[in-house]
Design goal:
Blueprint lengths: L3 H14 L7 H14 L9 H15 L1
Helix pairs in contact: 1-2, 2-3
Length: 63
């Protein structure tokens, strides 16, 4: 898990760079959700349910 923030940052940068070429908006949404969950300082707690939903969304997009 210690490398997750740097991977999320790389993913978000790549999405931003290639945004015009990404046909499925869901991939952009995943990037935004990852940033919100793992890189944004927030006072709102992150629930396991939220992370599980994001995981499911990524798996759906991947297959």
């Amino acid at each position: 898990m210690k490398h997750l923030p740097s991977l999320v940052k790389k993913y978000a940068e790549r999405i931003k760079k290639e945004e015009a070429n990404i046909k499925e908006k869901d991939w952009r949404e995943v990037g935004a959700e990852l940033l919100t969950l793992f890189l944004t300082a927030s006072t709102h707690p992150v629930s396991l349910h939220t992370i599980t939903q994001l995981n499911h969304k990524i798996k759906q997009l991947w297959s």
